[in-house]
Every structure is written in C-alpha cells, then in structure tokens.
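quick one, four chains, predict together pls
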Amino acid sequence: MTDLYTTNALRLLQVADNFRDGLSGEFSAVHGISVNEFLLLLHIKRSASNRLSRVDLAKRMHVSASTITRMAAPMEKVGLVGREVDQRDARLIFVVATDAGQEKLSEALATFSKRASYLFSDRWEVDEVDQFASMLGRLIGGTCDTLA
Amino acid sequence: MTDLYTTNALRLLQVADNFRDGLSGEFSAVHGISVNEFLLLLHIKRSASNRLSRVDLAKRMHVSASTITRMAAPMEKVGLVGREVDQRDARLIFVVATDAGQEKLSEALATFSKRASYLFSDRWEVDEVDQFASMLGRLIGGTCDTLA
DNA sequence: GCAATAAGCTTGCATGCGCAAGTGATTTGC
DNA sequence: GCAAATCACTTGCGCATGCAAGCTTATTGC
C-alpha cells in the first residue's frame, strides 16, 4: 500500500481541511469575517510593532501581494484596520488594527480556541497534546515566520 | 498567552498550507495537474469499485457538486477520466480513471510521497511517525470518508 | 548627480470555487 | 397510478485569488 509518510501527509491535509471548513462557517456566521481576515488580524497582533507592511503580510500568509491589497480594502471600509505610512520610505503602507479590529480578533480568537478545544480535548491526554505541539513545531521548522 | 490547543490548531493549519503550497508548485510544473485533480484521481482509486458519482466525490473532497462538474470536464477532455452511466439510475454519472489517468496518478503519487518523506524523515524517529499517524487518525475521527 | 535597477503597491485579466436556480430522473404518499 | 417531493447534475452569477504589467519611490553604480 502506501507508506506511513504518505499516509501522514494525506491525513494532515484532511484534518486541516476539516478544521478550516468548520471554522469558516462559524466565522462568517458569527463574526462576519473570513478565516483569512482573521489570520491577517492575528499576524498583525503577533508582529513586533503591531503593524505590518503589505508584502510582509503576504509572505507570512502565503498569499500574493495583490490579495493583501484586496483583502485590506474592505476591512478598512468596515473599520477593522487602518493604514500608516513610513516616514523614511514612502513606498511602505503599514496595515494596523483599529480598536474595532482588535475587538473582532479577540472574539474570533475565542471561537477559534473553542473549536481547537473540541478538536483535541475530548480524545487526548494532556501530555499527548504537548507532544503533538512539539511535533508540529518541528514540521514548521524555520522555513517561515511562525504564527504560533 | 494562547493555550496549547489553539497553538496546535494554528500550527496544523500552517503546516498543511506549507505542504500544499509546495506540492501545488511541483504538481503543476512536473505533472500538469492541480492538487485537487490529484486528490480526485486518488479518491477514485481508493473507492470500492474504482468509480464514484459526482456527489460522492464532492462529499469526500469537501467541495460543492458544481466544482466536481467543472473539474471533471477538462480532465475528460485531456483523457484522464471518463464517464460511466448507471443502468438502474439514469441520474448517476460515474467518474472513472482512464489508463492515462491511472498512470498520471501513479507519477503524482510518487511526487507526493517524496515530499512527504522530506517532511518527516529527516527529523523524525520511526516510532514518532507511528504515533503521529495514530494521532492524526483520531483527529479525523469517523466524521468523513477517509482517504488514508 | 543621474541613469539604471530594484522594491512596494495597485490594477486588468483569467481561473477556481460556492450558492442558488434550473432540468431531468427517481422515489414517496396516498 | 399520479402528484409531490427528492435526488443527481448542470449553469449563471459573484467572490476570492494568482500572475503579469504598470506606477511610484528608493537604492545602486558610476
């Protein structure tokens, strides 16, 4: 049949898909944002100075720069994020979270954590969760700016 | 900060994204198919009778029925899949893999396995891989038709 | 200094996808 | 038996996204 590496990779994709799908539904219904909008806010909050340039966001989120432009526009309109310019480099336009944006992130993060708990807590021992975290940490490696 | 469940879920999404992105690039460059087209072929191969109806495929792949219709059309045109009708129920249109489709799947599966090996083998002990498989298996649960 | 190159961002175009409506085939209720 | 409901599939429409081209601003080479 197929080796264990392959099986693991397939299951990894499947589990992530399932989780993301469920999350997407609850996010749009309860908070009115998409998973990617949530991740955008989260990346900003986890950044060093609470703001990120568009290309920086694009790299961290694994999307193109144009996607960031088109994601940020409606979020500005709704008041979740604002823009700041760099004094030194007029090319840079930072995305910052407004108070409303931070509030929205906080609510969405609660939903996220709730679903994460459902995923693990019922069927897992505490030390297994620890070990799983360490395994995932190694899989992420140093390849990208880590979110968690 | 954030609890371990949340961290794990974030990392899970991140690892899956990374893997899928890399896979997508190599698939389109080397095999000329998308990840979803690969998964479609794989679902058919893993099915009981080497063929699946469109709604069946949609459920297993977590996409809408219209997506299957639109994915299958170009794959038929290129000769990777064919269609079979059910004698009993004229509504059903099964998707089957042609010889070329099975060949393509086989090549793509080799690429997939190679990348899966890269992901795990360098940094993992054998029994860790075992344990990871069991953990992912529990995360998938009985919620959906399993692919691996 | 100034031309050439590069970086950050935006926009036009094409693609992939979900949702809702439509069509034809089958099952159900009575 | 037949009308109504259900199911499998397709199609029109809108949204999200990547790629390539273009614009503006910085940097580099000389």
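Chain B is about 70% helix and 10% strand.
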